[in-house]
């Protein structure tokens, strides 16, 4: 790992849990607005509660007009779209939203990285997650050696099954476009409730 990675903790909703998270070296906090998710939240904690953390709204095949309303209502800095959204959709969202747009892709051995070329100019970053039964939060990891196939210019965050034992593997990743990691289910006491102590130990170990 050539430079420190930004850390996103996703699937948050409990106010006290969110407040505790603000004391860690975390840059992004994710709120899931996908009703089928175990970590779905309709009304996330306020901007005052999350402090300087960048607020990420996670959506799956949502209507753009609904996302725009969520930006205004919940003061979102980043939109993470995690469904089958095509480049045209991403372009329109980027034009209408006063927020960064991240497009998530579910990676397995058959994934064709060349399809990302069509998204290069219409999103700010990619998020590479493992392909599983749900759009995200499956707690499984894909083969990170597949990242060598990504030759694009758009930066990306790594997601999918990252756990405390992943520290050394992450520290040895050296992809030039890797800018951050997404932590979720492997750091939970229960869906939507993070183990703050486990997160703190992981972050300390990652940055040492």
What does this 3D model show about the protein?
- With 208 residues, this protein is an alpha/beta fold.
- 24% of the residues lie in helices and 23% in strands.
- It contains 6 helices and 10 strands, in the order E-H-E-H-E-H-E-H-E-E-E-H-E-E-E-H.
- It has helices spanning 15-21, 47-50, 64-74, 87-96, 167-171, 196-207; strands at 6-9, 28-32, 54-59, 78-81, 100-107, 125-130, 156-158, 178-183, 188-190, 193-194.
- Strands 1-2-3-4-5-6-7-8 form an 8-stranded parallel barrel. The protein has a two-stranded antiparallel ribbon with strand order 9-10.
- The protein is globular, with a radius of gyration of 16 Å.
Average predicted confidence as pLDDT: 93
Largest sheet: 8 strands, parallel, barrel
State Rg: 16 Å
By secondary-structure content and strand pairing, the structural class works out as: alpha/beta
**Number of helices in the DSSP assignment:** 6
**3D shape:** globular
Order of helices and strands: EHEHEHEHEEEHEEEH
User: In percent, how much strand structure appears in the residues?
Assistant: 15-25%
Distance between the termini: 12 Å
The beta-strand count equals 10
Proportion of residues in helical segments:
10-25%
Residue runs with pLDDT of under 50 for 5 or more positions: none
What is the strand arrangement across the widest sheet? 1-2-3-4-5-6-7-8
Features of the shown structure:
alpha/beta, about 210 residues, two-stranded antiparallel ribbon
Could you give the topology of this structure?
Layout: E1 6-9, H1 15-21, E2 28-32, H2 47-50, E3 54-59, H3 64-74, E4 78-81, H4 87-96, E5 100-107, E6 125-130, E7 156-158, H5 167-171, E8 178-183, E9 188-190, E10 193-194, H6 196-207
Parallel strand pairs: 1-2, 1-8, 2-3, 3-4, 4-5, 5-6, 6-7, 7-8
Antiparallel strand pairs: 9-10
């Amino acid at each position: 790992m050539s430079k420190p990675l930004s850390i996103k903790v996703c699937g948050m909703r409990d106010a006290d849990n969110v407040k505790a998270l603000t004391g860690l070296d975390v840059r992004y906090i994710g709120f899931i607005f996908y009703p089928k998710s175990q970590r779905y939240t309709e009304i996330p904690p306020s901007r005052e509660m999350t402090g300087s953390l960048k607020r990420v709204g996670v959506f799956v095949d949502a209507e753009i007009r609904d996302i725009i309303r969520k930006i205004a209502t919940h003061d979102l800095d980043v939109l993470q779209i995690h469904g089958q959204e095509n480049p045209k959709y991403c372009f329109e969202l980027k034009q209408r939203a006063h927020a960064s747009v991240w497009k998530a892709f579910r990676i397995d051995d058959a994934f064709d990285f060349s399809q990302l070329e069509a998204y290069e100019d219409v999103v700010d970053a990619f998020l590479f997650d493992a392909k599983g039964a749900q759009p995200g939060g499956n707690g499984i990891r894909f083969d990170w050696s597949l990242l060598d196939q990504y030759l694009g210019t758009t930066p990306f965050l790594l997601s999918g099954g990252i756990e405390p034992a992943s520290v050394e593997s992450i520290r040895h990743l050296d992809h030039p476009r890797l800018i951050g990691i997404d932590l979720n289910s492997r750091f939970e006491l229960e869906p939507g409730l993070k183990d703050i102590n486990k997160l703190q130990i992981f972050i300390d170990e990652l940055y040492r």
